[in-house]
Design goal:
Oligomer: single chain
Radius of gyration: 30 Å
C-alpha cells in the first residue's frame, strides 16, 4: 500500500531542473532542524531582536542556532533570522530571510496596474503590488522593508474571515473581531510544524516557443517526487498536474489549462512526464505559466512547495515602419538626387518588380526626378542611364545595410528603400522601410548611457508614439508613417521622432536591448494607444495637451507636478514625458513603468505584437 499524504501538508522548496533536464533532489530547507522547547534568543541575534521590538515582534525562538546556506540562522515564530558577518557593525549584520516567499511556495499573486500613491494607499513598483490602510500603517511602523520586505501579494481572503497579505519576509493578517486586529502571522511556527510531512516535488520543463495569439500550444513537463510520500493517481488523495497563468498582462481573463491526472502512482524518487494543452490568450503579450501539482483542490505551492514560472509568449509578426528620410525639392536647397549604395550589394527594381540593376558592394546608383518628362532617371556605376516611372525599390542583399549619401553623416540604414514622387508637393522622397524595433533602435532622443529603467520607459514611449501615428497615416494613404525629423525632410517636416538609422546603434546597443526587453509594449488609455508625445525638460510641472495645443481634453495628457525639474527652465512643448526627469527618476530607483505612469495619467500597458 502506498503511504498516504498527511492531513497537515506543508512542503519544502522544490527542485527545479534546467529546461529539458531531469530535476535533481529537493533542497530540504531546515529539514534537519528540530524545534526546541523554551529556546533562548542566540547572542548573535539579541541586539537585532531588541532593536525591532523584542519577541513581541519576532515571536519566540523556536530553534537553537543552526547553519543555513552557509550562514548562522535561528527560526522564530514570525521570522527566520540570518547572520551576515560581512556586515558586522551595521544594521544589516542580522537580516530576516525570505520566509514569506518560502512559505508561499513562490506562487504567483496577481499584480495590479500602476497608480500614483496616496497617503493611505501606496503602490510598490518593485513587485507591482500595493499596501493599503492599516497594513500600510503597520508596515511603516515596522520599518517597511527592513523587517517584512516588499509585498508579494495583494490582500487575500483566508479561512475564518481573515484578510492576509504576504511579504517577502513575513505575513500580516487582519480580523476585526480580534483584540489586536492586525497581527504578524507565525510563519516560522507553521513552517517548523510541517517540515516532516513527506511532500516535495521537482520540475523539468521544455522551453515554450512563441505562439500566435489564440493558438493551441503544448507544454511538456516532468515532475519528480522528491518527498517521502507516494503520489497516488486515483482516489480522494489523487495528485494531478496543472498550470496557472502567472502574469498580469492583458487580457486578465483567459482559458486556464485543464489539470492532467497522473498516469500511475509515483513513488518517492520516481518521475512522470506529461504534455499539457494550453490555449494561448487572444492578445499578444509576454505571458508566463506556473506548473504545479494539486491535491484535494489545493496547489502544492500553497503547501510551500516551490514551483517555477516559465515564459510562454504570444506574438504577432512585428509591424514595419516607413520613414521619410530625404526630401528632394526646392524646399531642400542643394539636394538634387539620392545617391544609394550598400555595404555588400543591392538590387534595384521598378514598381512592378522587374529588376533594373544589381550593384556590388559600394557601387553607387544616383536617382533623380525628371520633372518635365514625369520620369525617374537612374544613373548606374557603368555610366549607363535608365528611365522609369512609378516607385523605384532598392533592397540590400541579405545581411547588408543601405547607405544614402545625402543624409551623411548618418547615411546607413537597416531595411529597404524606395524612391517616389509626391505630385501634390512637387517633391521626390527616399523612404526607408524596416521592422518597428529596428526603427526604434535608430532614434537619438535619448543617450545610450542613461539608467536602464529610463531606457525601458523611453523605448515604450517611442514605440507608442510610432505605433499610434502609423495607423491613421497609413489609412489615408500617406507615403510614409513618420519623417526622420531632420533637416533632410523640410517639405513634410513633422513633430516626429529624430531618426539616425544604424548610426545610432554605433553609439551603443543598450537602447536596442531595452526595445527588445519591452517587445510590443505600448501605452493605452481605455483600450486605445495614446499619442505619447514627450519633450526634453520640464520646469517643475508638465502641461496638459489642451493647455498647449487646444482641442478636446486628453485625460492621459494632463498637467502634473514634476519634482525632478524644479528650478529648471522648460525645454520643449511640456506635454507628456520629460526625458531628463525620466533619467533622474530612474537614477533615484524608479522602474520604467513607474516613470511612465507618473507623467501619463491613467494609462495601462498592453502589447500589440
Amino acid at each position: 500500500m502506498p503511504r498516504q499524504l498527511s492531513r497537515r501538508r506543508f512542503g519544502r522548496a522544490a527542485a527545479v531542473g534546467a529546461a529539458g533536464l531531469a530535476a535533481g533532489p529537493a533542497a530540504r530547507v531546515l529539514a534537519e532542524v528540530s524545534g526546541v522547547a523554551n529556546a533562548a534568543v542566540d547572542p548573535i541575534f539579541t541586539t537585532f531582536v531588541a532593536r525591532v521590538g523584542g519577541v513581541a515582534i519576532t515571536g519566540d525562538p523556536l530553534t537553537e542556532r543552526f547553519q543555513r546556506n552557509g550562514r548562522s540562522a535561528q527560526l522564530f515564530a514570525n521570522f527566520l533570522l540570518e547572520h551576515w558577518p560581512e556586515n558586522a557593525g551595521t544594521d544589516y549584520e542580522v537580516q530576516p530571510a525570505l520566509l514569506g516567499e518560502l512559505v508561499s511556495g513562490g506562487r504567483f499573486f496577481h499584480q495590479i496596474a500602476p497608480f500614483r500613491s496616496e497617503t493611505t494607499v501606496e503602490y510598490i513598483w518593485q513587485t507591482r503590488h500595493s499596501v493599503r490602510f492599516g497594513f500600510l500603517e503597520f508596515w511603516n511602523r515596522l520599518g517597511r522593508t527592513d523587517l517584512l520586505g516588499l509585498p508579494i501579494s495583494e490582500e487575500v481572503p483566508e479561512a475564518g474571515g481573515v484578510t492576509a497579505q504576504f511579504f517577502q519576509r513575513g505575513k500580516l493578517s487582519f480580523l476585526a473581531t480580534r483584540a489586536v486586529p492586525i497581527q504578524i502571522e507565525p510563519l516560522g511556527r507553521t513552517y517548523l510544524e510541517t517540515l516532516n510531512d513527506g511532500i516535495d516535488a521537482g520540475y523539468a520543463i521544455d522551453p515554450v516557443e512563441p505562439h500566435p495569439p489564440g493558438a493551441s500550444a503544448s507544454l511538456r513537463l516532468t515532475v519528480t517526487n522528491t518527498g517521502d510520500d507516494t503520489w497516488t493517481s486515483g482516489g480522494a488523495e489523487a495528485v494531478t498536474v496543472g498550470l496557472r497563468w502567472a502574469d498580469s498582462n492583458s487580457p486578465s481573463t483567459r482559458a486556464t489549462p485543464a489539470p492532467v491526472s497522473l498516469p500511475n502512482d509515483v513513488a518517492p524518487g520516481g518521475s512522470v512526464t506529461t504534455d499539457i494543452a494550453v490555449q494561448m490568450p487572444a492578445a499578444p503579450g509576454p505571458y508566463r505559466l506556473q506548473p504545479d501539482l494539486k491535491i484535494r483542490g489545493e496547489w502544492f505551492t500553497a503547501l510551500a512547495v516551490q514551483a517555477p514560472i516559465i515564459h510562454a509568449p504570444a506574438r504577432l509578426p512585428m509591424p514595419d515602419v516607413r520613414v521619410g528620410l530625404l526630401d528632394i525639392s526646392d524646399d531642400n536647397p542643394g539636394v538634387h538626387q539620392a545617391t544609394i549604395f550598400s555595404t555588400a550589394g543591392l538590387e534595384v527594381r521598378d514598381e512592378g518588380g522587374a529588376v533594373l540593376a544589381r550593384l556590388n558592394q559600394d557601387e553607387r546608383i544616383a536617382i533623380r526626378r525628371d520633372i518635365p518628362n514625369a520620369t525617374h532617371v537612374l544613373d548606374l556605376p557603368d555610366g549607363s542611364r535608365i528611365q522609369t516611372v512609378g516607385k523605384v525599390l532598392i533592397d540590400p542583399v541579405e545581411g547588408s545595410l543601405l547607405r544614402l549619401e545625402e543624409t551623411a553623416p548618418q547615411r546607413t540604414y537597416r531595411g529597404s528603400m524606395e524612391f517616389a514622387w509626391l505630385a501634390n508637393y512637387r517633391s521626390a522622397w527616399v523612404v526607408n522601410t524596416l521592422p518597428m524595433d529596428d526603427y526604434l533602435s535608430g532614434l537619438v532622443e535619448q543617450n545610450d548611457n542613461i539608467p536602464w529603467e529610463a531606457l525601458r520607459a523611453s523605448a515604450i514611449a517611442f514605440r507608442t508614439y510610432a505605433y499610434t501615428v502609423r495607423g491613421p497615416r497609413r489609412a489615408r494613404g500617406a507615403l510614409f508613417d513618420v519623417a526622420a525629423s531632420t533637416r533632410h525632410t523640410p517639405t513634410l517636416y513633422t513633430r516626429d521622432q529624430v531618426y539616425h538609422g544604424y548610426a545610432r546603434e554605433l553609439s551603443g546597443t543598450r537602447l536596442r536591448d531595452a526595445i527588445h526587453d519591452t517587445r510590443g509594449c505600448v501605452l493605452t488609455y481605455e483600450g486605445s494607444t495614446i499619442h505619447a508625445v514627450y519633450f526634453s525638460r520640464a520646469d517643475g510641472r508638465t502641461r496638459s495637451w489642451h493647455e498647449e495645443w487646444g482641442g478636446p481634453v486628453k485625460p492621459w495628457a494632463v498637467a502634473v507636478d514634476d519634482p525632478y525639474s524644479r528650478g529648471q527652465s522648460l525645454l520643449g512643448h511640456g506635454i507628456g514625458l520629460p526625458l531628463r526627469s525620466a533619467n533622474a527618476m530612474a537614477a533615484a530607483g524608479a522602474n520604467g513603468e513607474q516613470i511612465l505612469a507618473a507623467y501619463y495619467t491613467g494609462i495601462d500597458f498592453e502589447h500589440v505584437y
